[in-house]
Amino acid sequence: MKGQEWYQADDVAQEYDDKRFSGGGRLIDRREKQAVLSALGPVEGREILEVACGTGRFTVMLADQGADIVGLDISSAMLSQGREKAADADVSENVSFMLGDAGRLPFPDDHFDAVFAMRFFHLADTPVTFLRELKRVAREQVFFDTFRRPSMRVLYNWALPMGSRLYSQRDVRSLLADAGLELAHESHDFVFPYGFYRSLPGAVAKPFRAVDEAVGKTAAGDAVASVSYWDARGGE
């Protein structure tokens, strides 16, 4: 798994949200949460697993909406941040945080209504192995995102501390087939990559986001997007 030691560092966990989701990064956070909520639909009473939950920004959001949710991550430092968020939001009774390996999920088959993973597959060295595990423990739904190839993300991919795996649409469709999943819905976004937005103050980032969304609505929008969201179901 790329970047495993980097993500487990205490200082990375403490600074993770501030570095990625402040300033222009708030636009990314808002869009990602919208994507998760749109895919999972009403979550009240549903049993959900988030793989690679990090600091718990999606976990806590879904717990606040009534989901019975487990957040799993390889980083105890990230999980500590998640527990603090859950306590601050008064949703600790609805969420459990667990230390674990996404390649060997500690749950029986068909244990959750839905399983999702955000900001995960760009680090996966053997993505089909992880995707099969997500499918194994999901009764109904598997949702995840990927970074697209080709896209503007390649311009700064080399600068990341652990690199990043990029996927074409064909790559993901093949991956889904190999994992025994059927694609229910896909969407694509962010012509300007995440790193671009994070480098800007919020007020400066908003006009660029408006242009980004306008391009995304054109016929060429999907072809130039840097992020894809995939909503899948278990095949027969």
From TrEMBL:
Q: Cross-referenced Gene3D superfamilies, in alphabetical order?
A: Vaccinia Virus protein VP39
Recorded GO molecular functions are: methyltransferase activity
Which species?
Halalkaliarchaeum desulfuricum
Which CDD domains does the UniProt record give?
Answer: AdoMet_MTases (cd02440)
Known SUPFAM superfamilies for this protein?
S-adenosyl-L-methionine-dependent methyltransferases (SSF53335)
Official protein name in the record: SAM-dependent methyltransferase
Which keywords does UniProt give here? Methyltransferase, Transferase
Residues annotated as domain Methyltransferase? 48-140
Q: Name one GO biological process term.
A: methylation
